[in-house]
Design brief:
- It is built from 13 helices and 19 strands.
- The chain is an alpha+beta fold.
- Strands 10, 13, 14, 15, 16, 17, 18 and 19 form an eight-stranded mixed beta sheet that branches.
- The protein is globular, with a radius of gyration of 29 Å.
- The protein starts with a helix and ends in a 10-residue tail after the last helix.
């Protein structure tokens, strides 16, 4: 009987590959328990009339089961933790449908399906460790066996190759047609940086062209700025004017203490495990510290004037875009602070791009996404990118592309309440700054009169193996000058 069944499927594959058609034949009447006699086919004229529609129905119902494996997601990652399943056994999925969310020590990643079909098996439970190259799920596909075999040989591209894959950063799945992907590749565009305006965020040809126009300096219509990144609901509500007096604030909520009443031991995973590696590497660096204070009174007034303008274009304007842009302008004069050294400190590499990171306190721990190519961006464009990164950080959706490639870092400890800090360098970077909270303090003006001033403290740490104190001090003075006299930034903006 097994031989009869194998023989019947051999005939099906033969008919499919040669595209025979036979209208009088019906697969619904087929039974695996029949003898071989009724399954004998003759390649006569009637066989050419075989119904392609009927054959497709049979293949769908008898589609092969494919093991969907966890492919290489780059950065040398060999294992991830399964954080959440979006499907269960028996669920029907289509291409681009989310299957699960996994977390490495670099980023959270949403795995999406490459096939149309039905989930037959889940290989891992939630919080289990999944290995690269091992199956995640079994999918009974709705494609022909020839197509499935061909696709199954090709591994899903790594995350390091960016967007040309179905395995994408959560919240930023790059759904696009092959033609759009080809257009992006020809123009060296990363699809994760393009905002899709199609259905379910699908990237259209027009989105690629709009992105190209932006990169080449063309002026975009205001509507595009609103589509790029509207402020999250919480921030939008905070930005609305309120009728209550400014002095009246709701009492701060005190977090409830977490106490289980017993000792709990658990392994370090994800970002906490990554922090262990990073801090162990940072311990080998001799840190040089330098502190100063900055009078931001003029910047406070300038930001108040521009805030309503940027909000009208869908972007919240904080002080950080000015801090980041001023740092980039300073790095043009002191490129050694935007460099990296190898493990043995034998070679130094001066980075062309100013990928300035911002340390964020998130529910997943300390994360440091970075704004790419700040030297090419305006203050508004930096603010726009910060809005995107902060929204993803709050949602726990920062991905590998956002978290890797940093060259210089600022840590805004003042957003929580500190005034001074001793920041730790993030290897292979060589410098980092920690920003304190802005305080209104009495200071003397040029005429010797006491005035109200908006004062912020900054604490710098530098790799003392290659950076001396004088260089760090001169950079800080230049950065301070840009912020205390923000109009002077106009002379060096490009």
């Amino acid at each position: 009987m097994a031989a009869v069944t194998r023989g019947s499927f051999t005939v099906f594959r033969l008919l499919l590959s040669q595209q025979y058609r036979r209208r009088c034949f019906r697969l619904q009447n087929f039974r695996s328990d029949r003898t071989l006699q009724p399954l004998t086919f003759r390649c006569d004229k009637n066989l050419q009339m075989f119904s392609s529609r009927t054959l497709h129905t049979a293949v769908v119902s008898r589609g092969p089961v494919v093991q969907f494996k966890l492919s290489d997601i780059g950065e040398g990652i060999m294992e991830v933790t399964v954080k959440e399943w979006y499907v269960k056994e028996g669920d029907k999925v289509s291409q681009f449908d989310s299957i699960c969310e996994v977390q490495s020590d670099k980023a959270s990643v949403t795995i999406t399906s490459r096939y149309d079909g039905v989930i037959k098996k889940l290989y891992y439970d939630v919080d289990a460790t999944a290995l690269v190259g091992k199956p995640l799920v079994d999918i009974e596909t709705e494609s022909s066996s020839e197509v499935i075999q061909e696709e199954d040989v090709v591994e899903t591209p790594a995350m390091a190759r960016e967007e040309h894959t179905h395995q994408e950063i959560k919240g930023h799945k790059t759904q696009a047609t092959p033609a759009v992907r080809r257009l992006a590749m020809e123009n060296n565009i990363k699809l994760s940086e393009v905002v899709g305006t199609g259905k379910d965020g699908r990237i259209l040809k027009e989105d690629i062209l709009n992105y190209l126009a932006k990169q080449t300096g063309a002026i975009l219509p205001p509507t595009l700025f609103q589509e790029i990144q509207p402020p999250p609901p919480a921030a939008a509500a905070a930005a609305r004017p309120v009728s209550t007096p400014a002095a009246v604030k709701p009492p701060p909520t005190t977090p409830r203490p977490v106490f289980t009443g017993k000792d709990v031991t658990e392994p370090l995973k994800g970002f906490h495990k990554a922090m262990v590696k990073t801090m162990n590497a940072a311990l080998k660096i001799p840190h040089f510290g330098y502190c100063d204070e900055v009078d931001l009174s003029r910047l406070v007034s300038l930001r108040a004037e521009l805030k309503s303008v940027t909000e009208g274009r869908g972007v919240r304007l904080s002080y950080m875009p000015f801090f980041i842009k001023a740092a980039s302008l300073g790095l043009l004069h002191f490129p050694i602070l935007n460099a990296s050294v190898d493990e043995g400190c034998q070679n130094i590499t001066y980075k062309a791009s100013h990928n300035i990171g911002l340390a964020m306190d998130t529910s997943q721990g300390l994360l440091v996404p970075n704004v790419k190519n700040v030297q090419l961006l305006s203050v508004f464009e930096v603010a726009q990118e910060l809005n995107r990164l902060q929204a993803l950080g709050a949602a726990g959706q920062l991905g590998t592309a956002d978290l890797s490639g940093g060259t210089f870092t600022l840590s805004n400890i003042g957003s929580i309440g500190g005034t001074y800090a001793k920041p730790v360098i993030l290897p292979p970077e060589v410098a980092i700054g920690a920003l304190g909270k802005i305080q209104i303090l009495p200071r003397f003006d040029a005429g010797g009169q006491v005035v109200r001033a908006h004062i912020m403290n900054v604490s710098w740490s530098a790799d003392h193996r290659i950076i001396d104190g004088a260089t760090m001090c001169r950079f800080s003075n230049l950065w301070k000058e840009y912020l205390e006299n923000p109009a002077s930034m106009m002379l060096d903006l490009k």
